[in-house]
Recover the amino acids of this structure.
């Protein structure tokens, strides 16, 4: 079970992009640098994460993975990503987690929620529905497509519907 937890956590941790608290530029609204319609890609820059072993000892249902990462758009800092993933099923070769992604883009936010399944090679690319937003994103829906990587930088494609 420990090897499964390590494999799944590494894969989802890469996808959920972990890190420590990162300051956002305070000069104006950084979300002004990202589109409020259409599709755009931000990059999350991973640096670490926190795992809470809340279920049975070892990776098991109820455990949580929490993270924060810097977001860039076209090479410029535009905000941060905060994630919370809770394990709901852990098997020998795969696991399912319920994940919430909150993209803080200046004074605006986008929130996406859904389940992520990871197997032996991680979750690969997965899509989460955007449930809502605030500020310039308050009336949007759409999807986030996240591509898990081991490079420390995770591309997140944001497709907005109004």
């Amino acid at each position: 079970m420990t090897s499964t937890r390590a494999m799944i956590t590494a894969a989802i941790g890469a996808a959920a992009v972990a890190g420590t608290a990162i300051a956002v530029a305070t000069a104006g609204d950084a979300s002004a640098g990202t589109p409020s319609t259409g599709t755009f890609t931000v990059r999350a820059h991973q640096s670490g994460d926190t795992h809470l072993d809340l279920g049975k000892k070892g990776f098991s249902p109820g455990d949580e993975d929490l993270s924060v990462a810097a977001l860039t758009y076209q090479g410029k800092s535009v905000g941060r990503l905060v994630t919370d993933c809770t394990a709901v099923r852990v098997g020998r070769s795969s696991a399912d987690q319920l994940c919430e992604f909150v993209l803080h883009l200046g004074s605006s936010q986008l929130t996406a929620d859904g389940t992520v399944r990871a197997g032996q090679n991680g979750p690969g690319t997965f899509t989460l529905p955007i449930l809502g937003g605030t500020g310039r994103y308050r009336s949007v829906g759409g999807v986030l497509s996240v591509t898990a990587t081991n490079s420390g930088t995770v591309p997140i494609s944001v497709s907005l519907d109004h």
Observations:
- The first strand starts at residue 38 and ends at 45.
